[in-house]
Design brief:
about 220 residues, single chain, alpha/beta, 9 helices, 8 strands, 8-stranded parallel sheet, binds pyridoxal-5'-phosphate, about 15% strand
């Protein structure tokens, strides 16, 4: 039952991504579906894997370790993306586990990541989180500080910044926030855009998202 439900949900999301992409003249294959697995029960995770989904997003380091580390060690090939705030003192664990860290937003964290990468001899792909709505409670660099921050990451640490990520304010139309993120990326020569969640991923694709982070529309509501 769960497998069928999840299979249908994923096919629907993929079809909607493809339709949104086509509506603006993009290839469906230019958008990566990141399945946000945080808090989901084991049965649903197993079902999602059975559909062939291989890219997952998590927002806490420890939760991601407990969900994915053993599977990884058993040989499962998946791509894991950290999409939640990261504390500098967890940089080492994050570098060990994640293929992509989407929430770089301060120099102290960048320094900790650079140190962790040097020690581990490996480096995750990095995204800068931009707080497009300049919300007090939200992580991310302010839009006006983004250019300088990206320049510092490149200059001080030699980081190749793969993309930008944003979470628009819940109560506002998302389109202008996606447009702002795309504009900041373009003027900084950054090519990937992580934007769009269950409520607005089709809009995000129309504004140029190269990956969408979808949780509840794929797995069902979080408990
Ligand atoms: C939880 C979460 C998502 C997924 O949210 P849904 O609305 O369930 O699709 C996407 N991005 C981030 C950063 C999240 O924390």
């Amino acid at each position: 039952m769960v497998l069928q439900e999840i299979t249908v949900a994923r096919a629907d999301v993929l079809a909607r991504i493809a339709a949104a992409a086509k509506s603006v003249g993009r290839e469906a294959s230019s958008v990566e579906l990141v399945a946000v697995s945080k808090v989901q029960p084991e049965e649903r995770i197993a079902a999602m894997l059975a559909t062939g989904q291989r890219v997952f997003g998590e927002n806490r380091v420890q939760e991601a370790q407990s969900r994915w580390q053993a599977r990884r060690q058993a040989g499962l090939k998946i791509e894991l993306r950290l999409i939640g705030p990261l504390q500098s003192n967890k940089a080492k664990e994050a570098v060990a586990l994640f293929d992509v860290i989407e929430t770089v937003d301060r120099m102290k964290l960048a320094a900790a990541l650079a140190d962790a990468c040097a020690k581990a001899g490996k480096a995750p792909r990095l995204y800068v989180q931009v707080n497009t709505g300049e919300e007090e409670q939200k992580a991310g660099v302010a839009p006006l500080d983004a250019d300088g921050f990206i320049a510092s990451l490149r200059r001080d640490y030699g980081f190749a910044i793969e993309g930008l990520m944003c979470i628009p304010p819940a109560e506002e139309p998302a389109g202008p926030h996606f447009a702002l993120l795309a504009k900041i990326a373009a003027r900084n020569g950054v090519t990937s855009l992580s934007m769009g969640m269950s409520a607005d991923y089709e809009t995000a694709v129309m504004y140029g998202a190269t990956s969408v982070r979808v949780g509840s529309a794929l797995f069902g509501a979080r408990g």
